[in-house]
Amino acid sequence: RQQKELLSDCIALLQVACLIRVPSEVVKQRAQVSPSASTFRILSHTLYHEGIQGLYRGYKSTVLREIPFSLVQFPLWEALKDLWSWKQGHVVDSWQSAVCGAFAGGFAAAVTTPLDVAKTRIMLAKAGSATASGNVLAALGGIWRTQGLSGAREHPSACLQVLSRGWQPSAWEGSSSWGPTRRRASCCSDPAPASVL
């Protein structure tokens, strides 16, 4: 029962985090494909042509990506820390937790890359198009029909995503040892929810 409540709480937190993350992700994605346009211009253009819902295009696909990502990343991170602690006979240090977090996040990013590709396509699709409707399965089907399996794996930011998302869980543990009372990172500590663009 507690695990079900914890899972539902985590999903609710991801949904709330995406309320903030998605508009900034939409603007960021569009800025990456239009480097000559300013962030303010992209934001105002989106609001003028699509309204506030334009900033939330890709919300469902972002949540659908974040849930499996977290379900892979955090248990793997904890398992790797436990394994490393067991092998060396004491609790992992912050840098060791960072290495475990990088591997876990990188693996989770690799596993969920097709969902990330669909999310990006939805966010960047022309307003009014079928892809812009936000249907993740339709977006993945379109990628499959035009590019095959490689289209769902090739993502311009896949390498950066693996690197940046891999360090998320370990940042909390590392920062917890910077306070006035330094403590060793625990293999059983609860990480704060990660939020990264």
Automatic annotation (TrEMBL):
<comment type="similarity">
    <text>Belongs to the mitochondrial carrier (TC 2.A.29) family.</text>
</comment>
<feature type="repeat" description="Solcar">
    <location>
        <begin position="3"/>
        <end position="83"/>
    </location>
</feature>
<protein>
    <recommendedName>
        <fullName>Mitochondrial S-adenosylmethionine carrier protein</fullName>
    </recommendedName>
</protein>
<dbReference type="GO" id="GO:0016020">
    <property type="term" value="C:membrane"/>
</dbReference>
<keyword id="KW-0472">Membrane</keyword>
<keyword id="KW-0813">Transport</keyword>
<dbReference type="InterPro" id="IPR018108">
    <property type="entry name" value="MCP_transmembrane"/>
</dbReference>
<dbReference type="Pfam" id="PF00153">
    <property type="entry name" value="Mito_carr"/>
</dbReference>
<keyword id="KW-1133">Transmembrane helix</keyword>
<keyword id="KW-0677">Repeat</keyword>
<comment type="function">
    <text>Mitochondrial S-adenosyl-L-methionine/S-adenosyl-L-homocysteine antiporter. Mediates the exchange of cytosolic S-adenosyl-L-methionine, the predominant methyl-group donor for macromolecule methylation processes, for mitochondrial S-adenosylhomocysteine(SAH), a by-product of methylation reactions.</text>
</comment>
<dbReference type="InterPro" id="IPR023395">
    <property type="entry name" value="MCP_dom_sf"/>
</dbReference>
<keyword id="KW-0812">Transmembrane</keyword>
